[in-house]
Write a structure and sequence with these properties.
With 176 residues, this protein is of the alpha+beta class. It has one domain: Gcn5-related N-acetyltransferase (GNAT) (Aminopeptidase). The chain has 5 helices and 7 strands. Helix 1 packs across helix 3. Bound molecules: coenzyme A (COA). Coenzyme A binds next to strand 4, helix 4 and helix 5. This is Acyl-CoA N-acyltransferases (NAT) superfamily protein. It comes from Artemisia annua. GO terms for molecular function: acyltransferase activity, transferring groups other than amino-acyl groups.
Amino acid sequence: MDPSSSSTTFILRPFKLSDADDILEYTGDDQVTKFLFMETMTTRDEALTYIKHVCMPLSWHMSICVNNCSIGFVSTYGHEGHKANIGYCVARKYWGQGIATGALKMAVKMVLKDFPEIVRLQAYTDVENIGSQRVLEKAGFKKEGLLRKNTLIKGSVVDDFIYSFLSTDVIEAVNH
Ligand SMILES: CC(C)(COP(=O)(O)OP(=O)(O)OC[C@H]1O[C@@H](n2cnc3c(N)ncnc32)[C@H](O)[C@@H]1OP(=O)(O)O)[C@@H](O)C(=O)NCCC(=O)NCCS
């Protein structure tokens, strides 16, 4: 895999059951899960179930790893032939190091190679999730618009921005 675009070196690899403790570290953090569909996890068993029933069955779900420890994920979901959604998260202690941006750029390259039928990757982000919007913009995604009251998340219906990356768009260099 390509080296990362951040100062911290990371790789993307599929999840393993042995990632459960690492996953619990970030999925157990309310600040990490705030804008995600998942509830904050509290036990290792929940993390194991998540790996078995969410990570492994998803067609493209990669662990972002530093020194072989999982510190986040980047994954596609809702594949519909020519398009798929993409999402990501990074453990709080690694925020602000360019990891999400680098991982997203890497993921786009890999997904478009692994699924040649995909011409559009799209991402929804809560209008209040400024960090995620910046990650998408830095990775070359185009903001397409505001989707009012689009997502029910943790009991609230929120506005989203929708972003897309087309297979014909230019993926900027992974290193910077
Ligand atoms: C959003 C998230 C993925 C950003 O991860 P990250 O590794 O810190 O992002 P990067 O370091 O690549 O930052 C990219 C840019 O976003 C900016 N940024 C990151 N978080 C920010 C925040 N909370 N507010 C404002 N800007 C922010 C960075 O400063 C950087 O911009 P710059 O290079 O111009 O300074 C991370 O905070 C996270 O995992 N949040 C919880 C899960 C989540 O919201 N996932 C997305 C769901 S749509």
